[in-house]
Design goal:
There is one protein chain. This protein is of the alpha/beta class. It has helices at 10-19, 39-51, 89-99, 159-170, 172-184, and strands spanning 2-5, 24-27, 58-68, 107-117, 123-134, 150-152. The longest helix is centred in the first third of the chain and has 13 residues, at 39-51. The N and C termini lie close together (11 Å). Bound molecules: inosinic acid.
Length: 186
């Protein structure tokens, strides 16, 4: 069975293929503006765009980001472009650290929403979360985005320190994909 995924991110496609081995994973570009106020809303915008082209198959899209409690949930759905456009990871991370200067409560969570359209055209949405906190300083060379700044609960290390294998056991995306696996029954 084919599963169309609204991304060309090779890392995401590989992770999805490992978790859902019964599917032939096919990339498709939704080419839409992600302007919803929630992760779920953006995932739905993307999956609807590709599902329209693949009636009778599974389609899937994800949307993720970092929510910081002391910043009222920012960067949130603006995680990729927190410091403005064009998107810059160093600028995003620097802004986050600046906005948390002197802040004691550094609680945060990564969120990943996944929206699916099944072969009958029915929509499904699942979510994975990874609670944690924002480090006092960046640590680790692995990963991407906010990885050097995020320490998941139960760990003394950042996502970037943990490396891909350990991160993928506990990450927001892994948890959302586990929910997808249960839903699809793969
Ligand atoms: P996307 O929706 O998965 O493309 O994620 C949007 C943005 O959220 C990314 O550009 C990153 O800034 C941030 N982000 C999402 N997942 C992660 C992660 O696992 N580590 C670090 N940053 C992430």
């Amino acid at each position: 069975m084919k599963l169309f995924v609204a991304t060309h991110n090779a890392h995401k496609l590989r992770e999805i293929g490992e978790i859902l081995p019964g599917f032939e994973i096919c990339a498709d570009d939704p080419d839409v503006e992600e302007n919803a106020p929630t992760f779920e809303g953006n995932a739905l915008i993307k999956v609807r765009a590709i599902a329209a082209r693949h009636a009778g198959a599974w389609s899937m899209a994800d949307d993720s980001g970092l929510e910081v409690k002391a910043l009222d949930g920012a960067p949130g759905v603006r995680s990729a472009r927190y410091a403005g456009e064009p998107c810059s990871t160093p600028a995003n991370n620097a802004l986050l650290m600046r906005n948390l200067e002197g802040v004691a409560d550094r609680a945060a969570r990564f969120v990943c929403a996944v929206a699916l359209v099944d072969p009958a055209g029915v929509e499904h949405v699942v979510r994975g979360e990874c609670p944690g906190r924002i480090a006092r300083e960046a640590s680790g060379a692995g990963g991407f985005g906010y990885d050097p700044l995020f320490i998941p609960d139960g760990s003394a290390q950042t996502y970037a320190d943990l490396g891909e294998v350990e991160k993928n056991k506990i990450s927001h995306r892994a948890r959302a994909l586990a929910a997808v696996k249960s839903l699809i029954g793969a």
